[in-house]
Amino acid sequence: MNKIKSLKYRKCVATFMATIITTLSVSYTQNIQTDAVLSTPEIVHYWRHDYNDSDYTTYDKYSLIVDGRSNAKTSKTVSNDMVRDTDTAVVRLDDGKDPCGGSGFIVGDHEIATVAHCVYNRTINKFLDFKISVIDENNKVIETISPHYVHINEDYETARGDASPYDYAMIYVDEDLSPYGKFNIGIALDSYADKNGSVIVSGFPQKYPDGYDNKNWGIRFKAKGNIIGKTVDAFQYDADVASGDSGGPVYIEEGIVVNGELYEYKTVIAIHKASGNWGAKITPKLAKLYGDNPHKTK
């Protein structure tokens, strides 16, 4: 991604963008829904932990009312389909134990999207101690940031058995993330998935393709693939991924011409969450969490 053009695009065409994007949760691509509606509004309950509290078992609760519609194949293994990714909006989550605790991506000036299992441990019932590392194009740490708040769906902890439908999370930080770029959030049309639409997955895998030393830990890669399956709350795709990519963006990359100049933009339609190449589908429920959410801070 051309970072300079991308930043210029975000700053100089904001007024133009406002006319064609209705909310943070809605993109203007032909592959993205713009007016999803639920027959019955859904109430979603969240836990929010304040990292000023050193007791990682504490949280407060809030609820969001969502007026929107949410709408087995063999996956690949790591191969040479992975290529280096220079997008600083894809960040690394470091827990100080493993080489990488996972991935995340910037969706606002202070908001980072990721998956719940990268920030909360269901086995010990507590939030995890981690830092966010912003990585430049040369794989150097630009900035290390501590989370202020982390939000997870209450059902991720309380669900009996499979909690994967609730495996998504939001990190809120005090620092301004705007210099590093951000992703749009969009709800993919069913027709795009049904036609095996193309996607790109980015993150910090713990296994690299041929030609890279796995000991040189924490490199950002991306891989292209196609949607090969879906459920109500997830997409499956055949892009090359590995452990460590959890929390990374699954996105559509397109372009728009403004005053004769081409600008790239990226719209996330899922959050990579599991082996088997599954991602948490962006639905109105997730878009509400990351976008029009009055409970991001206390």
Q: How far do the termini sit from each other?
A: 35 Å
Mean pLDDT across residues: 81
* Major sheet size, sense and barrel closure: 9 strands, antiparallel
What Rg, in angstroms, do the CA atoms define?
A: 18 Å
* Strand arrangement across the biggest beta sheet: 3-2-12-13-7-6-5-10-11
Binned, the helix content reads 10-25%
What's the topology here?
Layout (H helix, E strand, L loop, with lengths): L2 H10 L1 H7 L11 E2 L8 E9 L9 E7 L16 E2 L5 E5 L7 E5 L4 E4 L5 E2 L4 E2 L3 E5 L5 E5 L3 E5 H5 L10 E4 L11 E2 L1 E2 L1 H5 L3 E6 L17 E10 L3 E4 L11 E10 L2 E14 L3 E4 L2 H7 L8
Parallel strand pairs: 14-20
Antiparallel strand pairs: 1-15, 2-3, 2-12, 4-17, 5-6, 5-10, 6-7, 7-13, 8-9, 10-11, 12-13, 16-17, 16-19, 17-18, 18-21, 19-20, 20-21
State the gist of this model.
The chain is mostly beta strands.
Overall description:
The protein is mostly beta strands and 298 residues long. It is built from 5 helices and 21 strands. Strand 6 (102-106) and strand 7 form a beta hairpin.
List keywords for this structure.
298 residues; mainly beta; 9-stranded antiparallel β-sheet; 5 helices; 21 strands; disordered N terminus
